[in-house]
Amino acid sequence: MIEIINGECIEELRKLDSSTVDLIITDPPYNIANFMNGRDTNLQKMRSNFFGAAGWDDLDFNDWKDHMRLFLKNQVGYLRMVLP
């Protein structure tokens, strides 16, 4: 059986038993906007879907680090399943 769950990753992970998961695909914030701000590029003009300056991906480094730490903390039980 295949079940696809679409939601806030950390909230959804808390609902799962670790023995029931075969694969987790997630898209954490990469903080690209923070990197791209102030760069002299024309990417935003070249692509209408350019998200490098999106507010949802423009995090303070410490906020980003805290978010990733929380995400990875919640993934540990699942990550162990795929490690040798």
In terms of topology, how is this protein built?
Blueprint (H helix, E strand, L loop, with lengths): L8 H6 L17 H5 L6 H4 L14 H19 L5
Kindly describe this structure.
There is one protein chain. This protein is mostly helical and 84 residues long. The protein has one domain (9-79). Helix content is 40%, strand content 0%. The model is unreliable at 80-84 (pLDDT under 50).
- Sheet-strand content, in percent, reads under 5%
Radius of gyration from the alpha-carbon trace, in angstroms: 16 Å
Count every beta strand, where a strand is a DSSP E run of 2 or more residues: 0
Mean pLDDT: 69
Q: Indicate the percent of residues in helices.
A: 40-55%
Number of helices: 4
Task: State the secondary-structure class.
Answer: mainly alpha
Sequence stretches where pLDDT stays below 50 over 5 or more residues: 80-84
C-alpha geometry: elongated
Number of domains: 1
Major sheet description:
none
| First-residue to last-residue Cα separation | 25 Å
Order of helices and strands: HHHH
